[in-house]
Amino acid sequence: MGLLVDGKWQDQWYDTGESNGAFVREGAQFRNWITADGAPGPSGEGGFKAEEGRYHLYVSLACPWAHRTLIFRQLKGLESLISISVVHPDMLENGWAFGRDMAGTTGDTLFGHDYLHQLYTRDTPQYSGRVTVPLLWDKERERIVSNESSEIIRMLNSAFDDLTGNRLDLYPTDLRETIDRLNRRIYEEVNNGVYRAGFATTQRAYEEAVVALFGALDWLELHLADHRYLAGERITEADWRLFTTLVRFDAVYVGHFKCNLRRIADYTHLSHYLRELYQWPGVSVTVDMQHIKRHYYYSHGQINPTRVIPVGPLFDLSAPHDRGRLESL
Ligand SMILES: N[C@@H](CCC(=O)N[C@@H](CS)C(=O)NCC(=O)O)C(=O)O
């Protein structure tokens, strides 16, 4: 675990000293957009036109943010247009690395680098900041397009539609306000909430995060009792953003991050909903529990110094669900 300072790698854990023990996530720095015609997107510069074979995604199968992008790549039929490299789940003194000694890893299939930070300095030799996945790379311009998952999924949602003919819209205009509102609370209290609990270094920061997290899960449980999906009758981006946290919850966040007031298995509607999303065509292949458990329990030596990885819990995401009782479009 570390970061780049003026292009040089430094091995250090998150600094919570400035924030009363609270974990504060650093904003992503590469914010360009792929668009259908190469025009600039909402941020960054233009010149990143949607083209087959031009872009490459660097992901970890363990990371919930990278997982979003893998799900969109599947649902939008982009597997043959956008290639991927999968890092090793162990994020140790050199950060994300390209070891191949575990099933599911690929190495750096573009350049054969050893470490992800080499991609960041390949783009910006003096880069200072965290080295995170997902990372979207442009093979033509040899540049980073984006390292912000919430924006990468928006690009994948629409930029390639004319090339693929896939018109599935997970961010439809009429639901955007609702989706944005859901995302705001779910990001803060759930997606990032589990990290704020797990990486807190004071009792108070931890408890604040956990109370908000379970407040949000209780709210979602109630909402899902009579809505099939978060924004109503259609599955949207908001559901997939929640899914990547829910699917890791009982296996990792309950134990490793001490988010243990309840498990997802203890929530009736959330657990049926989780199984429906897991069973959605194309989604289960993006879920790798070995990488997920290994990454958290093995990489975070400050939290789990023995690096022993729990065997359980036992659960079956392919068991039947009851969501068909609710209306869907
Ligand atoms: N804002 C980023 C966050 C990505 C992120 O924090 N990824 C984690 C893995 S789950 C990471 O690479 N962390 C390395 C670090 O913080 O040094 C996004 O959503 O794309």
TrEMBL record:
InterPro entries: Glutathione-S-Trfase_C-like (IPR010987), Glutathione-S-Trfase_C_sf (IPR036282), Glutathione_S-Trfase (IPR040079), Glutathione_S-Trfase_N (IPR004045), GST_Omega-like_C (IPR047047), GST_Omega/GSH (IPR016639), Thioredoxin-like_sf (IPR036249). Keywords: Transferase. It comes from the Bacteria. The keyword Nucleus does not apply. Coiled coil: none annotated. Residues 172-299 form the GST C-terminal domain. The keyword Transferase applies. The active site is at residues 63, 195. GO terms for cellular component: cytoplasm. SUPFAM superfamilies: GST C-terminal domain-like, Thioredoxin-like. Pfam families: GST_C_2 (PF13410), GST_N_2 (PF13409). GO terms for molecular function: glutathione transferase activity. The record marks 253, 296 as: Lowers pKa of active site Cys. Glutathione binds at residues 96, 130-133, 148-149. This is Glutathione S-transferase family protein.
